[in-house]
Description:
The chain is an alpha/beta fold. Helices cover about 35% and strands about 15% of the residues. It has helices at about 30-40, 55, 60-70, 105-120, 135-150, 165-170, and strands at about 15, 45-50, 80-85, 85, 100, 125-130, 155-160. The strands form two sheets. The chain has a five-stranded parallel sheet, covered by helices on one side. It starts with 14 loop residues before the first strand and ends in an 8-residue tail after the last helix. About 35% of the residues are buried.
Amino acid sequence: MKSPMPTDPALSHVAWGSWRCVANPDIDTPDKLARLLEGCVAAGITTIDLADIYGGFKVEPLVGAALALAGIGRSAIQLVGKCGIRPVSPARPENRLKHYDTSPEHIRRSVATTLEALRTDHLDLLLLHRPDPLLDADAVAETLAGLVRDGRVRAVGVSNHSPAQLDLLRSRLELPLATN
């Protein structure tokens, strides 16, 4: 089923950032993290900020397992994901040199991997994590619009982009960028 074109995503006023959770012994297992996430939702913190690269690619699977344990309904939270950075990592041996990659293939593969790790069928918001000097604005716009049409992503945006980089991508998109 295809989703309608997005409007601004409804996010909580405060987001929980997952960046370093695998390095924190208080929340580095699914059961410990599940308790934290339950507390966040109870306190009205329903937006979870993620990125495929966080924790050496270990954060998204940990959050997915914790959400499954917590039994938090998907409609009770908003998942914000980021992609576009390819660091050298044992978890991604094909990445032999750190670089930014906003190719359609990388964006689609990143979203598919993220959705599988989080055990969900969609992201509420997908961000391009960093500007890519080799960005093909037309190809990226087509890819992002396709992910929204397919329902895998509800809204799109960017992170850490300059106004000129934002304007370039906006000029090619048929849908709004929800955030920078």
